[in-house]
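Reopening this ticket.

The earlier resolution said the output was attached, but the attachment link was broken on my side. Pasting everything inline this time so it's all in one place.
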Amino acid sequence: MDFDFSEQQNMLKTMAGDFLSKECTKAQVRLLEKDEKGYDPAVWNKMVELGWQGLILPEQYGGMGAEFLDLVVLMEEMGRNILPGPFFSTVGLCAIPLMRFGRETQKAGYLPLIADGTNIWSLAVIERSGVFAPAEITCRAEYDGKNYVINGEKWFSQFAHVANWLLVICRTGQEIEGLTAFIIDTKKQGVKIEVIPTVAGDGQCRIKFKNVRVSSRNILGKKGQGWRIVDYLSQRALVLKCAEIAGACQAVLNMTQAYAKDRVQFDKQIGSFMTIQHKLVDMLTDVEGLQYLVYQAAWLISSGQDAGASVAIAKAKADDVYQRICIDAVRVHGAIGFTMDHDMGCYFRRIKGAEFTLGDTGLQLENIAEGIGL
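Inline output:
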């Protein structure tokens, strides 16, 4: 296992960091939390010019043909700057399964429009219970002899309100084999989308489907293959989300370390106090431990090995580390750390949203236990 980045990945990391620090300031992040769209179309278009939306898409579909690890590097930098927007929902949650399970006509029709930034996508799996599990899916797709008619609701579909297309998991039969993935136009008659207010302002949406008619040509993969598609995308998307969290944790550590050196109390830098030093050391070990888990899981996926247990371990660790680091950072900052206007709050407000992405910590611990035979 080699944790060193390639020359190309180091260049991507540096370039992404420079771009995002300039184009995605914390002041802009705070403004976008209250913005109706939740992202900046101008920044989105500049990302297109850099080739990010098509980074791992094949060149024949307008992409750059880069490796999965390249996308992990990019997501870490996005997390470091907490970039608001539909990049993860479009590329991490939808483009990846489209590449793997899409028919040639689907790939040729959809992927170039993702690569050039024209189309935004959103994944719709979770329902009212908020539990990420096949048994919780009740949104139904009934075949009437010509089309599938979809009725039901989906919750917590990120940036669905600005999306052009939805990747929706519906029930077409019983048990786990009765789940099917559908590609649905958000402008389709019977689709209603509303934004769910959240502390983070992270574009979570509720989607209602009422007699939405879609053709069998809109099935991704095969009928009954829906949860297999979810399993495939969730492993890869979880690694990307963990990379985003790792980048955010590194930024919080850097911010807190700098504050501990600058802040003076009792004629001393507060970083000279043992209690503060212990917190910073704990934060450092948490950040580096998480980074290694993320890189290990990403390496396993890139090399074609089974990464299920490693992905679950990384996500469980990421959820725990993100919360602990942000809370400790707020404590080190003192009263100013609790204010809405401080940069620290931008990271803190995203903790819960990150934890519940594709299953919370409890689900990941269950997956780990199952992986070791318990």
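Reporter confirms the inline version is readable. The chain is about 50% helix and 15% strand. The chain has three domains: 7-120, 123-224, 227-371.
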